[in-house]
TrEMBL record, chain A:
Gene3D superfamilies: 3.30.420.40. The keyword Transferase applies. GO terms for cellular component: cytosol. Keywords: Transferase. This is tRNA (Adenosine(37)-N6)-threonylcarbamoyltransferase complex dimerization subunit type 1 TsaB. It comes from Virgibacillus profundi. GO terms for molecular function: transferase activity. GO terms for biological process: tRNA threonylcarbamoyladenosine modification. The lineage of its organism: Bacteria, Bacillati, Bacillota, Bacilli, Bacillales. Residues 31-171 form the Gcp-like domain. Pfam families: TsaD. It comes from the Bacteria. InterPro entries: ATPase_NBD, Gcp-like_dom, T6A_TsaB.
Length: 235, 341
């Protein structure tokens, strides 16, 4: 079983290859550089490095967001087209879930998040039990302030994981400092090898209908829906 | 040399996602459409009164593999038959282009096929080769929502832009005037329809620019139409929408036709081709046909479904690039403002 995992949903560009139960190769960069230019060359390079040809792949796993709209689409367009052309299954994994794998051995709650600007974050709440990652809160696009208030009521240990941790570290510490666990450096970046692991056992998604996990309507659509609602209310 | 004699037919896959159509096609020998699938998003964008880039990009990623599969199924070909993957590299909406470009790269890698980035306008020009073989030198007039250009071609795959718009594209002016007249989106065909029954009784300006220039400018005309409507409203004069449409369209067509005729004569072209969405405009077609019939220069205007964005045109232009040995690498990127050269 050869799995190719792809993550371009946030600043990290990650590609990993899992052969049977072993990660045999992984490329990770955390640079503000163009994913569109760099993704396919990274896949090509890694495949050559591990001496694998495209038709030897058995499954594609892709990080489907939330994250950068454009980044998520680059990953999905690539992954879906690979899976379709090679006629192999594809699995889309939440980018938050993939990041939560960095807290594999943490006993409390895990709160991965990505900055969504203006005080908003894409986030969810997870807990590992019996080797499985379970969702405690559903994924959402919310004000970080609201999330922290909610977590404060729980009074339980929370591990925060985020490439954008520096933006919210102060708010986390001042709100729920006694329960918060904020690690250093590399734990805040999603790893494509974790993505491959997460997708290994997962049932395949239908290739055509696998769509990004934006967690947010496009602005024009949100405005349009609001206008429709107002129209209805005004008779 | 032996290879080119022995060579079987050439089948090129084309992908186009530069605006609001997700399109895939397979073209044989650059001239024959084997399959041509276009998933239009027009219904989705109608409610916003125009194309919303983020929504367009979202639809592309939902549609891409569906359209690929349809194009393949309709062709009865297999991957072995395909010689290269061609894709619109630009210009266009960057987020929309990215979906097609990354999909094309993935296919090229998965099937180990050559990859070729194609200029969208080269595609519009080559849509005509699906109808009729080119004769050089030829002059192409490209008119669409995003473009107004005169391109001179002395040979396949060699493009010389001799004139372009300095501000709005003709199609853009159409859309803005249509919005002023509260016509539904897309406005171009609506104005064309009104113009047919209206009377050309308002003198709107024609921007000729410098005497020898083949460039265009439509923003002055657009402002003039807007002012006219405003002033009429203030003075409580009634202007007929049909007459505004007819007078506006007459100005656009006058400039487009006269410049095209002058360029065709100056460069002694053997063919004139019209491309882009506005090529579907009946008023423009009629005027060009009349002018070039007088000059005895063959004029080619593609059928409607090849005027608007499609992928057969990308595959057709891509076939020439393929034959000329042009290749793109896996680091091919979308380029929203790609130049035609
Ligand atoms: Zn076009």
């Amino acid at each position: 079983m050869n799995i190719l995992a792809i993550d371009t949903s946030n600043q990290v560009l990650g590609v990993a290859i899992l052969k049977d139960d072993q990660i045999i190769g992984e490329i990770v960069t955390n640079l503000a550089k163009n994913h569109s230019v760099r993704l396919m060359p990274a896949i090509d390079k890694l495949m050559k490095e591990v001496s694998m040809s495209p038709e030897q792949l058995d499954k594609i796993v892709v990080a489907k967001g939330p994250g950068s709209y454009t980044g998520v689409r680059i990953g999905l367009a690539t992954a879906k087209s690979l899976a379709w052309a090679l006629n192999i299954p594809i699995v889309g994994i939440s980018s938050l879930e993939a990041l939560a794998y960095q807290g594999r051995f943490f006993n409390g709650y895990i709160c991965p998040f990505f900055d969504a600007r203006r005080g908003m974050v894409y986030t969810g709440l997870y807990k590992w039990s019996e080797g499985k990652l379970n969702a405690v809160y559903e994924e959402t696009n919310s004000l970080m302030e609201d999330i922290l208030n909610k977590l404060a009521e729980e009074k339980k240990e929370v591990l925060f994981l985020s490439p954008d941790i520096s933006i919210y570290k102060e708010a986390i510490m001042s709100n729920i400092g006694e329960f918060a666990c904020v690690p250093d450096g590399p734990y805040h970046l999603a790893k494509p090898s974790h993505l491959a692991l997460a997708g290994m056992e997962r049932t395949a998604d239908p290739t055509h209908t696998l769509t990004p996990n934006y967690l947010r309507l496009a602005e024009a659509e949100a405005n349009w829906m609001k206008a429709q609602k107002e129209k209805q209310q005004n008779g | 040399m032996g290879e080119s004699i022995m060579k079987k037919e050439t089948y090129i896959l084309g992908i186009e996602t530069s605006c609001d159509e997700t399109a895939v096609a397979i073209v044989k020998n650059g001239r024959e459409i084997i399959s041509n699938v276009v998933a239009s998003q027009i219904e989705s964008h109608k409610r916003f009164g125009g194309v919303v880039p983020e929504i367009a990009s979202r639809h592309h990623v939902e549609q891409m593999t569906v359209v690929l599969e349809e194009a393949f199924n309709a062709s009865k070909l297999s991957w072995e038959d395909i010689d290269a993957i061609t894709v619109t590299e630009g210009p266009g909406l960057v987020g929309a282009l990215l979906v097609g470009v990354n999909s094309a790269k993935a296919l090229a890698f998965a099937k180990q096929k050559p990859l070729i980035g194609v200029h969208h306008i080269a595609g519009h020009i080559y849509a005509n080769r699906l109808e009729k073989e080119f004769q050089f030198p030829l002059l192409a007039l490209i008119v669409s929502g995003g473009h107004t250009e005169l391109v001179l071609m002395k040979d396949h795959g060699v493009y010389e832009v001799i004139g372009e718009t300095r501000d709005d594209a003709a199609g853009e002016a159409y859309d803005k005037v249509a919005r002023m007249l509260k016509l539904p989106y897309p406005g171009g065909p609506q104005i064309d329809r009104l113009a047919e029954v209206g009377e050309e009784n308002i003198a709107f300006p024609r921007a000729w620019l410098e005497e020898d220039s083949y460039d265009f400018s439509f923003s002055g005309l657009k402002s003039s139409v807007i002012n006219k409507i405003h002033n009429a409203k203030q003075r409580e004069e009634s202007l007929k929408d049909e007459d505004i449409a007819a007078s506006f369209q007459a100005s656009v067509i006058d400039v487009l036709t006269k410049k095209t005729v002058r360029a065709a004569k100056e460069f002694n072209v053997k063919q004139v081709i019209v491309a882009g969405g506005v090529a579907a405009n009946r008023g423009l077609r009629a005027e060009l046909e009349a002018q070039f019939a007088d000059l005895a220069i063959p004029l080619i205007i593609p059928p409607l479904k090849l005027c608007t964005d499609n992928a057969a045109m990308i595959a057709a232009a891509g076939t020439i690039a393929y034959e000329q040995g042009r290749r793109s690498d896996l680091d091919l990127n979308a380029n929203a403002s790609l130049l035609l050269k």
